[in-house]
Design brief:
The chain contains three helices and four strands; from the N terminus they run E-H-E-H-E-H-E. The protein has 124 residues and is an alpha+beta fold. It has one domain: Alpha-Beta Plaits. Strands 2-3-1-4 form a four-stranded antiparallel β-sheet. The protein is globular. The termini are close together. The relative contact order is 0.30. InterPro entries: Dimeric_a/b-barrel (IPR011008), DUF1428 (IPR009874).
Length: 124
């Protein structure tokens, strides 16, 4: 069963194009090193909840959008191997001071999938 890294972050609307460029580059790097898939999605139906919500989790401001992203791998071992390669890849070496989002408000974690339904029904 697949292993998934998930990410939630807030991106200033004024820097969204810059973020998209960075995400495209990151996706290429992850895939080049063996990830099964790489997805970045911009929230368009993420209400600000009374107690919890995506915007609350990343302290999104009115001038920001919430981004939800995930990367899939064959296993946790593959994820650990690939993640090291990604972090060491020259294409991922940028100046943290010029990142198009606040990394302190980035939420991330690794998850072991326990069900995955494929087109046509059933699990792989």
């Amino acid at each position: 069963m697949a292993y998934v890294d998930g990410f939630v972050l807030a991106v200033p609307k004024a820097r969204l194009d810059e973020y998209k460029d960075m995400a495209r580059r990151a996706g290429t790097v992850w895939m080049d090193h063996g990830a099964l898939s790489y997805v970045e999605a911009i929230g368009d139906d993420v209400p600000y909840g009374e107690l919890t919500s995506f915007p609350r989790a990343v302290q999104a401001r009115d001038d920001e959008v919430v981004v939800f992203a995930w990367v899939t791998y064959e296993s946790r071992n593959e994820r650990d191997r690939i993640l090291k390669l990604v972090m060491d890849d020259e294409r991922m070496q940028g100046d943290r001071d010029t990142m198009p989002f606040d990394g302190k408000r980035l939420i991330f974690g690794g998850f072991e999938a326990f069900i995955q339904v494929q087109p046509g029904g059933g699990e792989p």
